[in-house]
Amino acid sequence: MAISTGSFARNFAWLLGSEGLVRITRLGTAVVLARYLSAAEFGIAALAIASHELLRLLAQNGFGLRLIRASDDDVDALCNTLYVLNWIWSLALFGLQCAVSWLVADYYDVADVRSMLLVLAVIYLTMPLGLTQMYRVQREQRLKVTAWVDSSQVMVDNVLTAVFAIAGFGAWAIVLPKLIVAPIWVIGYRVACNWRFDPGKGFKRFGEAFAETRSLLSAELARGLRAQMDIFIIGRLLGTEALGLYYFARNAGLGISLALLQAASHAMLPKLGEVVRRFGIGSELQSESLRILRLMLAVTLPIIAAQVFLAPYYVPLVFGDKWLPAVPVLMLLCLSAVPRLVGESMTQLARAAGHASDDARWNILSTPVFLCVVLVGCYYGLTATALSLLLFHLVYQSLFVIATGSRLFRKRPAVAKPLQATT
Questions:
Q1: What distance in Å separates the CA atoms of residue 159 and residue 157, rounded to the nearest whole number?
Q2: Domain that holds residue 367
Q3: Which of 53, 57, 67, 147 has the fewest CB atoms found within 10 Å of its own CB?
Q4: Per-residue model confidence (pLDDT) at position 200
Q5: Is residue 422 part of a domain?
Q6: CB 41 within 8 A of CB 109
Q7: Closest CA to 174 of 255, 242, 100
Q8: What 3-state DSSP class applies to 423?
Q9: Residue 111: how many other CB atoms lie within 10 Å
Q10: Is 241 within a domain?
């Protein structure tokens, strides 16, 4: 019995449509920032944002995946448990970022970074108010809600960033809006989902809530190190001005590609989770994942190709001649998005099938290699660093997809593995 890919296509379309609106505002913001901020100011903002995003990875605790894979009978009690745990988790992250802010500022000798990280830490205190509602929306595959809530938040962020940059806020123009727009995300999900904490519906044991945490958190931390550590290494070895060029290239080029990747992964996990619940791990799951991957590539490859080939023309025209040195870096980073997209599809497939530990192992083992690749690349300059990152992803993602796919689908019965309710 086949299962339609229609719900994935609709969800993917909503996410892509909202991302298109975000890109319109982000393009305007990128132009303003390129005109009003120096490369050094970009570098300072990059240190603060990268530090925050690296710590924020600890929020990827697997609670959402646990709810997506839970049986219907467990949902209400599990939501109560996750609500309590999210408050504990977020308070811990708030304290951790406040402490880390001093270390980062002292290490790079940039006092503003400390203040920026303290401001960004407040975001953690808003997250528990909407996280459980977000999990339920994802479980129900109502990604139209995800698309509009997330895009509304980012669009307002972009507009405020441009306004603050014109007003002369410098690097703070990139940081302050992220705190100001945090309530948009909370209000959006609370309006979209009427779930509220109700102790009367019971709780699950804390151990139940953490069923997916170790594997998912390990994988996300390793992926996060790869996503952010290049910024720290480049900033330390090549200086804040070179880091500013790199950060510009990431945002102006790779940012679009990664947004497509994020949209695809958000739509893919709930869909594949539904297939696993209905059919188990077998030929239907394999066929569905291949159909989804073909659709994702058909949409994203033309966009990435256009970015790469047109970069030498639109960068000086739109952003100004001072960013021309960043063009080769931008092109190479955009190309790296293609193997990352294929690898991300396998990541979501493994997680939906209950094999997040495979993803975690690969990410953990590859992270030291990634760091060495960046260090060697920095020795030869910024463009060499971008080229080394492209080669790393080509090799790593290929090996990961082949090995994990073979492990998942080797001669096994198509038996579903539902999460059992506990009494």
A1: 6
A2: 6-409
A3: 53
A4: 80
A5: no
A6: no
A7: 255
A8: coil
A9: 11
A10: yes
Question: Which portions of the chain are predicted below pLDDT 70?
Answer: 1-23, 61-62, 70, 204-217, 265-266, 277, 279-282, 410-423
pLDDT at 327 (0 to 100): 93
Distance, C-alpha 212 to centroid of its chain: 18
- Please say whether the beta carbons of 69 and 212 come within 8 A: yes
Do the domain assignments include residue 361? yes
Token pair for 219: 């994988």
Region of residue 62 (left: phi > 0; alpha: psi -120 to 50; beta: else) = left
Both tokens assigned to 149: 């809530």
Counted domains in the chain? 1
Kindly report, residue by residue over 255-313, the tens digit of the pLDDT.
Answer: 777 777 777 766 777 777 777 767 666 677 777 778 878 887 887 889 889 989 999 99
> What are the φ/ψ torsions at residue 23 (nearest 5 degrees)?
-65, -35
Place of tokens 């080029």: 253
pTM of the model: 0.67
> Would you give the distance in Å from CA 414 to the centre of its chain?
31
Encoded tokens for 265: 């992964």
DSSP state of 353: T
CA angle 361, 362, 364 (to 5 degrees): 65
Whether residue 417 is contained in a domain is answered as no
pLDDT digits (tens, 9 = 90+) for 134-156: 888 888 878 778 878 888 898 89
Instruction: Please report where in the chains the tokens 């958000």 appear, as a residue.
Output: 266
